[in-house]
Amino acid sequence: MQSISILGSTGSIGVSTLDVISRHPERYRVYALSAHSRVAELAAQCERFNPEVAVVGTAAAASALSAQLAARGLRTEVAHGPEALCAIAAADGCDMVMAAIVGAAGLASTLAAARAGKKILLANKEALVISGQLLMDAVAAHNATLLPIDSEHNAIFQCLPPGYSRALAPHGVEKIMLTASGGPFLLRDVDTLHQVTVEEAVAHPKWVMGRKISVDSATMMNKGLEVIEAHWLFGAPADRIEVVIHPQSVIHSMVSYVDGSVLAQLGNPDMRTPIAHALAWPERIASGVAPLDLAQVAQLSFSPPDMRRFPCLELAYDALRAGGTQAAVLNAANEVAVQAFLDRRIGFRMIDQLNHRVMDALPNQAATDIGTLLEQDAAARARAEAFITQ
Fold it and tell me: Is the pLDDT of residue 317 over 80?
């Protein structure tokens, strides 16, 4: 029996994780759940899974959650704030942590889990984008285990040889190939992208995701962040990470070897597959996902990405090559830009333009400590907001 803290339990990854866990009550129990403000959903999850602790973002949300749990006769302890998140990530009572809080807000708790030597199921790509070296150093120093949940990185992990040591050459790896669906605007006239509405941008053709990540998929910033994440997870330089457009989303990613072999991981587009893989690794368990029917798929197609259509992807490669705090700056600017778009304050094509302006405006610094990274994150957000206001 293993216990798990799920950070971001009411989001799509958290809900999928609970679905997989519910299929294996003999293997897993929930130690803690967290949500920022979805009190009703979190209370319902507490009633079903009976965690020891539930964490929310604010004191007001904690008061509301406590009332709902009391009405249900539940004794789950309620806490709130960033320190409480770090506490349930590092608690002795949990064996593993699902890090599924979107954005920079999930950074501190993921680092706390690493420093506590936990098995970390990483669905928060921003933790690596912002502080890749710091997180990987913490994982190594404290004998933590880091398993990727992004379908693409989980696929790469499955296609690499056992004992892979974050270095391509000793294992005969030529390059890593990240597949991308291309999002909802793959075939749309590029000259009309400035007319994209919020409703169109959040309607992903293959995956059921939150609004922010759906917009990132539409701009392919999501794939750009995954390129940066792949660099830290697998030790691959930018020129050995290739993005391939694959609209069917059946091949989740590939690894190319020096002997000409290309290994791919295939499956139906359902996040329960990588979640189940990471939960049970190195074993395999049922995920609830239907088997892949290749005859029904019938055709698999591939194409290179058009950087004119997806300039955010190019910006991510630029940030990776620049190193330092550039990736943290890009991520922060993008979070502000996407929220401004969702709030209908800026147009769709202003997202990549805003990201570019903020990267140019802030000097690159050495990413030597979390304080510097968070300072640059805050500076990038302030600069992005200033540009929007102007």
Answer: yes
Question: pLDDT tens across 175-226, in order?
Answer: 999 999 999 999 999 999 999 999 999 987 776 677 888 999 999 999 999 9
Beta bridge partners of 96: 4, 119
289 three-state secondary structure: coil
Q: CA 73, CA 263: separation in Å to the nearest integer?
A: 51
In angstroms, the CA 284 to CA 278 distance is 9
Provide the residue count of the chain.
390
Identify the burial level of 25 via C-beta atoms within 10 angstroms of its C-beta, where 0-12 means exposed, 13-18 middle and 19 or more buried: exposed
Q: At what angle do helices 126-141 and 370-389 cross, to 10 degrees?
A: 180
CA dihedral 361, 363, 364, 368 (to 10 degrees): -130
Neighbours of 81 (CB within 10 A): 14
Band of residue 281 on the pLDDT scale cut at 50, 70, 90: very high
CB 102 within 8 A of CB 11: yes
Q: What is the pLDDT of residue 247?
A: 92
- Rounded distance between C-alpha atoms, residue 371 and residue 260, angstroms: 44
pTM: 0.92
> CA–CA separation, 19 vs 326, rounded Å?
37
Q: What own/partner pairs with CB < 8 Å and gap ≥ 24 does 131-139 have?
A: 131/107, 131/328, 131/367, 131/370, 131/373, 132/228, 132/229, 132/231, 132/232, 132/327, 133/232, 133/367, 134/367, 134/369, 134/370, 134/373, 135/110, 135/111, 135/232, 136/166, 136/232, 138/111, 138/114, 139/114
Report the 10 Å Cβ neighbour count for 291.
7
Q: Residue 154 and residue 156: Cα distance in Å, rounded?
A: 5
How many Cα atoms sit within 13 Å of 267 on the Cβ side? 23
Phi, psi of 188 (to 5 degrees): -75, 145
Nearest partner of 180 among 149, 130, 216, judged by Cα? 216
Distance CA 269, CA 54 (A): 30
